[in-house]
Amino acid sequence: TLGTQTDYRDGEAQTDPYSPEYVVPSGSVPELLTLATLTWGRGLPAGLAEVEMIERAREKRAWEATLPAMDNASQIAKRRKMMDDMERKEWAFREQEIEKLQEVRLEVLKKLLRRREENQNELDAKRLDDHWQNHQKAKEEKIKKIQHDYALMLRKLIAKRKNVMGKLERRDIIKEYTDFGSQTYAPLSRIGYFPDNHSERYVVKNFYLNTFAGLCELEASLPDSVTQVKIKAPKPKYTTTKTGFIKKSARLEVELAQVHQ
């Protein structure tokens, strides 16, 4: 009823496919032995390129079977001509293979160059964005400072415009007492007034608290219940009822005392 699970896939534990032993009869050359160079992971399982290679090997073996024999002198020129033609075909095929390989390398190089260009463009765009952000922050700070200076200068001009001719203004007492932020309610220390200088004026002065005679008179006026303490003795708790039974709470207290001991 229990199952286990390993830390590895089955594919990671697989080895190369098993190749059994074989015996070649004398006088026979199996075509399968011509593929002995192909191993698992290096040509196997066979793809399109391997199939084309096998077909070319078959064509070459068929061509070798059609070559004239070497013991006939009249056929040597023909044999040499056929071998030259085959060599030209092989060189042409090799050139095609080289061109294909060069095209593949060229495509890889183009991809790498394109990727490098894209990365460089992204880096340039990021740098430009950061530069633009820094300029925007500097611009906002400069605009904020200009607005602050503008508001400050505007308040100064408004204050200066109130008294253009330098005339003295008459004091408006009603306005001062209706405005709780005026100098009457909240005077400023910069004009020579310090609210904490005359704080002793607000100290409470009481005859009954500051003089001995006042304390005696205050003590005499207090009732006796304040000066004379009366203690009432606590009444004992009754542990038995009127009928003579012991209460449950009393039994519980006795048990708790025993447990405590």
Question: Could you please describe the fold and organization of this structure?
Answer:
This is Cilia- and flagella-associated protein 91. One of its GO terms (cellular component) is axoneme. There is one protein chain. With 261 residues, the chain is mostly helical. It is 54% helix and 2% strand. It has 7 helices and 2 strands. The protein has helices at 48-65, 76-162, 173-178, 207-210, 212-221, 224-227, 248-260; strands spanning 39-40, 43-44. It has a two-stranded parallel sheet with strand order 1-2. The radius of gyration is 58 Å and the shape is elongated.
Low-pLDDT runs: none
Structural class: mainly alpha
In N-to-C order, the SSE pattern is EEHHHHHHH
Main sheet summary: 2 strands, parallel
What strand line-up does the widest sheet have?
Answer: 1-2
> Span from first to last CA?
58 Å
- Anisotropy-based shape: elongated
Radius of gyration over all CA atoms, rounded: 58 Å
- Total number of helical segments? 7
Which helices and strands, and how do they pair?
Blueprint: E1 39-40, E2 43-44, H1 48-65, H2 76-162, H3 173-178, H4 207-210, H5 212-221, H6 224-227, H7 248-260
Parallel strand pairs: 1-2
